[in-house]
UniProtKB/TrEMBL annotation:
Compositional bias annotation for Acidic residues: 96-123
WD repeat boundaries on the chain: 243-285, 288-322, 333-368
Alphabetized Gene3D superfamilies for the sequence: YVTN repeat-like/Quinoprotein amine dehydrogenase
InterPro entries: Glutamate-rich_WD_repeat, Histone-bd_RBBP4-like_N, TIF_beta_prop-like, WD40/YVTN_repeat-like_dom_sf, WD40_PAC1, WD40_repeat_CS, WD40_repeat_dom_sf, WD40_rpt
Protein name from the UniProt record: Glutamate-rich WD repeat-containing protein 1
Region (Disordered): 91-127
Subcellular location: Nucleus
Annotated Translation initiation factor beta propellor-like domain residues: 246-356
Organism: Strigamia maritima (European centipede)
Primary localization: nucleus
GO biological process: ribosome biogenesis
Keyword Protein biosynthesis among record annotations: yes
Pfam (any one): CAF1C_H4-bd
One GO MF term: translation initiation factor activity
Length: 433
């Protein structure tokens, strides 16, 4: 029987020490951590926690939910993880090295001091534990939201179903060792709280409403979008008739952060569409040729009426919804040399957004920056030669990951970005934001 078996080992991830990487420019970051979770995660989301907003004091703690992309379908997992002890990066100076040498000399004469130092080093190391849920297929997209004080995660499966998961047990296990033991010894695998199989095929577009608790939008690769309305008893009502003005796969969907009944979508048909759920199921606003090829991702600014989009053409565009009928973006950035895979506005700074691409770059942008036309010195002229082709709004280029799939700002830790790639997770904050 299952209850007689030994409990599975507590699952952990491996953090890499980037501070020992000579090619890594430590001065450009205030924090930088790298972690692997075994199978890479195609998608993840930040879970809102109760540790407070606008956290600036180190070390940091972050909770995430992620979906794996394992080589075998039945080896996939939904991972609920806690990253803790995320410390500020240390930059070695000549003075620090001299102090370490002096400490090493003293340690030779005092074994107890050496043991204490080792303990301090261990105490400063980042830690990542997770409580997982077995899946039968790859998770294309996952999004988390706190609904009526319960943390829910919606997952888009490669098999074509959309599942809602109650993450209460997993989060409790992460914060309590005894509950973790009980979770690992469970006899039955957790099951979804709700499952929708009404889509005709798999999809990637998925978003919870920020304004109306429990409202969800899902879009599939067969051009259909469904809107979910929560009902009593932990279920959802999904209209049988979808929103289907798109002529190709729906790649992303975003609820308006200010208007409860409005959402936007983008598609391989090159368009961006804005919908109102109170009207007939035709888009009320359409930008037919928003990009020269597939529109992969969009993000809706929480403060200003802007949507940023990223396309297969590697181009990033910013759209002012007040001027959307002109069909012209207010900003166009051509920096990435491969398809844009993720974009997101900084929830703590309305002029800043981040983007990632198939060129293994994660970029940070600030729309408030303008070209400086003042006279420059000769040294500045030399620096200008190296950066003259870069847009002035480009704040930072983060590298080191391969095949970056998704990024998110941490809404409660200003400036912190988390990204997932084929090579694992990066958690960092640059000196630019």
């Amino acid at each position: 029987m299952e209850s007689r078996k030994r409990p599975r080992k507590e699952e952990k991830a491996v953090f890499s020490n980037v501070e020992n990487d000579d090619e890594f420019d430590k001065s450009a970051y205030s924090m930088h951590h790298v972690a692997q979770t075994g199978a890479p995660c195609l998608s993840f989301d930040v879970i809102a926690d109760k540790l407070g907003a606008n956290r600036t004091q180190f070390p940091h703690t972050a909770y995430l939910v992620a979906g794996t992309q394992a080589s075998l379908a039945n080896r996939n997992k939904l991972i609920v993880t806690k990253m803790s002890n995320l410390n500020k990066i240390k930059i070695k100076t000549k003075e620090n090295e001299d102090e370490e040498e002096d400490e090493d000399d003293d340690d030779d004469d005092d074994d107890d001091s050496s043991d204490s130092s080792d303990d301090e080093d261990d105490a400063e190391k980042p830690n990542m534990i997770f409580a997982s849920v077995k899946q039968k297929s790859c998770i294309n997209r996952v999004r988390a939201r706190n609904v009526n004080e319960t943390t829910l995660a919606a997952t888009w499966s490669e098999s074509g179903s959309v599942d809602i998961w109650n993450l209460t047990d997993q989060l409790n296990a992460l914060d309590d060792p005894q509950r973790m033991v009980a979770y690992l010894r469970r006899e039955k695998a957790p099951k979804p709280a709700f499952t929708f199989t009404g889509h005709s095929t798999e999809g990637f577009a998925l978003d919870w409403s920020l304004i109306k608790p429990g409202y969800l939008a899902t879009g599939d690769c067969n051009k259909c979008i469904h809107v979910w309305k929560p009902q009593e008893g932990g279920t959802w009502q999904i209209d049988e008739r979808p929103y289907e003005s798109h002529t190709g796969s729906v790649e992303d969907v975003q609820w308006s952060p200010n208007e409860a009944n409005v959402f936007a979508s983008c598609s391989v048909d090159k368009s961006i569409r804005v919908w109102d759920v109170r009207t007939p199921k035709e888009a009320m606003l359409v930008v037919a040729d928003a990009h020269d090829s597939d529109v992969n991702v969009i993000s809706w600014n929480r403060t200003d009426p802007f949507i940023v989009s990223g396309g297969d053409d590697g181009v990033i565009k910013v759209w002012d919804l007040k001027l959307i009928e002109t069909k012209k973006p207010v900003a166009v950035f051509k920096h990435h040399t491969a398809p844009v895979t993720s974009v997101e506005w900084n929830p703590n700074d309305s002029t800043v957004f981040a983007a990632s691409g198939g060129d293994d770059q994660l970029t940070q942008w600030d729309l408030s920056v303008e070209k400086d036309g003042e006279m420059e010195t000769e040294d500045e002229d030399e620096d200008e030669d190296e950066t003259k082709d870069l847009p002035p709004q480009l704040l930072f280029v983060h590298e080191g990951q391969r095949e970056i799939k998704e990024l998110h700002w941490h809404p409660q830790i200003p400036g912190v970005v988390i990204s997932t790639a084929n090579t694992g997770f990066n958690v960092f904050r640059t000196i630019s934001v």
